[in-house]
């Protein structure tokens, strides 16, 4: 008879995915524990044991240590490794030799999720040690996915509706986004509205690019509160990054050059940089050469781009796939493929963008990335299938007798 294992789920992706994961843990004959940190978490919680942590943030480490001992926890699963509660959980797991599976959106998308033991992105074992056991013997194939913005918005509204009305029950909670609650719920609604209202401007940009003959520098912006900005970037904010880019572009611009800044789709309802971009462009006398888009087609942009400029967005991987010279400012899983300040100064890159590595190195890296870090799946569609895939790697590390 298989020994029952105790698996602790912390915060998951927005929506009911961790409910499905708890069900699959149960289906394998094991015990699912869930700790909820706020009313939104509790709304989507399922498991054999569901508890609410209502203490102050500084009490979390001692609480988690005691819970692990009392419940004989064998493994921890979390989404978003840089959230305060998850940073503590990773530290506790390491000290207690308890495996911590860190989930994230796929380094390669769509059709993949990221699943790594101990950390993601700048904390990825693949980046830190380079010696990582593979999830797969061969390169996995992505699952087919459908658009999920509508359901994510719906789940977000429910989550923050619960958060707003019952947040008084979790007074010590620290959210990874500032201003959580009713304000964030409204911003999810506004994100849907803005998705419709930006089409005219985006279409205008695409028409302009079709006839453009000069160089195009493409800068995909990141979510304003993304841990990639906070922990793995030389910039303190997206605003600082925009200011830096426009200043550098103005100083190095050649005749016919354009700079396109693309807003991150998950930050659509939360931030808008048009006023800042216009102000900076006017100050540097490049207003006619700066474009700011939201839903512009990524593949179409990259087919015309001279270079991609990014802090550490996974769009950089897509750009490299399309043979677009890419400059990386922060720490990223693919930093050995992109140009950085260690290989080429940014001024030199702007003057003459070039790829750092031949394409065979890119393909070798992607194969290794897929085998070591990625699972076929999606948190917002085909959730059960994705949960079962996660269970398969738990079997190797935790659930085996």
TrEMBL record:
Q: Give the highest taxon in the source lineage.
A: Bacteria
Q: Name one GO biological process term.
A: polysaccharide biosynthetic process
The record's listing under InterPro entries reads: Capsule_polysaccharide_synth
Pfam families recorded: Capsule_synth
In its UniProt entry, what is this protein called? Capsule polysaccharide biosynthesis protein
């Amino acid at each position: 008879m298989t020994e029952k294992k105790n698996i602790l789920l912390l915060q998951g992706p927005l929506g009911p995915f961790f409910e499905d994961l708890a069900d699959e843990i149960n289906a394998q004959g094991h015990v699912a524990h869930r700790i909820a940190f706020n009313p939104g978490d509790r709304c989507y919680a399922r498991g054999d044991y569901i508890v609410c942590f209502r203490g102050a943030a500084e009490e979390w480490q001692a609480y988690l240590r005691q819970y692990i001992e009392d419940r004989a926890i064998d493994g921890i699963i979390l989404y978003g490794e840089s959230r305060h509660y998850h940073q503590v959980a990773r530290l506790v797991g390491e000290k207690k030799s308890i495996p911590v599976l860190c989930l994230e959106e796929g380094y390669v998308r769509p059709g993949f999720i990221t699943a790594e033991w101990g950390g993601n992105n700048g904390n990825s074992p693949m980046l830190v040690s380079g010696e990582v056991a593979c999830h797969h013997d061969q390169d996995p194939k992505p699952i087919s996915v459908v658009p999920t913005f509508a359901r994510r918005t719906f789940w977000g509204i429910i989550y923050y509706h619960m958060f707003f009305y019952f947040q008084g029950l979790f007074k010590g909670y620290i959210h990874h986004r500032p201003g959580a609650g009713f304000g964030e719920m409204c911003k999810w609604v506004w994100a849907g509205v803005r998705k419709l209202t930006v089409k005219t401007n985006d279409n205008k940009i695409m028409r302009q690019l079709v006839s453009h003959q000069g160089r195009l520098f493409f800068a995909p912006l990141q979510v304003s509160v993304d841990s990639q900005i906070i922990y793995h970037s030389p910039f303190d904010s997206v605003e600082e990054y925009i200011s830096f880019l426009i200043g550098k572009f103005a100083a190095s611009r050649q005749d016919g050059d354009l700079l396109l800044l693309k807003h991150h789709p998950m930050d659509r309802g939360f931030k808008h940089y048009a006023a800042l971009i216009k102000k900076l462009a006017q100050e540097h006398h490049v207003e006619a050469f700066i474009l700011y888009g939201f839903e512009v087609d990524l593949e179409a942009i990259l087919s015309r781009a001279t270079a991609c400029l990014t802090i550490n967005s996974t769009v950089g991987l897509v750009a490299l796939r399309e043979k677009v010279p890419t400059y990386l400012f922060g720490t990223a899983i693919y930093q050995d493929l992109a140009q950085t300040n260690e290989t080429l100064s940014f001024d030199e890159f702007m003057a003459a963008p070039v790829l750092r590595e031949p394409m065979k190195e890119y393909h070798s890296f992607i194969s290794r990335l897929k085998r070591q870090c990625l699972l076929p799946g999606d948190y917002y569609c085909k959730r059960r299938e994705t949960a079962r895939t996660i269970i398969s790697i738990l079997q190797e590390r935790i659930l085996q007798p």
